[in-house]
Write a structure and sequence with these properties.
There is one protein chain. The chain has 118 residues and is mainly alpha-helical. It has a single domain (2-117), classed as Helix Hairpins. Helices cover 81% and strands 10% of the residues. The protein has helices at residues 2-48, 69-117, and strands spanning 55-60, 63-68. A two-stranded antiparallel sheet has the order 1-2. The N and C termini lie close together (10 Å). One of its GO terms (molecular function) is unfolded protein binding.
Length: 118
């Protein structure tokens, strides 16, 4: 009986660790998206001060392409919209995963205390 409980604890611990790892990955993705948003906002703020007919360079990997300001502003707007949507998805995923992790933690605590009493 006690060995069965220990096996359940090991299984729950593995599941808990896996979910904790996923939570860390979500946080990493969130930080990356937030950095992209800050970069896009900074670039848009710098371009705002320039005249509308100015042509600017847009970096793509290691290459730079000459494009009108309006095209670059449109691309930056798309980046912001996409990033916002992605942040909302990550936030809801994090919420669900966090609740699941909390319930696993409670279950693990309960099992471990019952093993210690026995």
């Amino acid at each position: 009986m006690e060995e069965e409980k220990r096996q359940v604890v090991r299984t729950l611990k593995q599941e808990f660790d896996e979910k904790q790892g996923r939570l860390r990955n979500l946080e990493q993705q969130k930080r990356s998206i937030e950095a992209t948003l800050r970069r896009a906002a900074f670039t848009a703020a710098q371009l705002d001060d320039m005249p509308d007919d100015v042509r600017t360079y847009r970096s793509v990997g290691k290459a730079y392409f000459l494009q009108p300001k309006a095209a670059i502003m449109g691309q930056l707007e798309e980046v912001v919209k996409g990033s916002d949507a992605e942040l909302k998805k990550l936030s809801s995923s994090r919420e669900v995963l966090s609740k699941s992790t909390d319930s696993l933690r409670a279950e693990l605590t309960e099992l471990i205390t019952s093993l210690r009493r026995a």
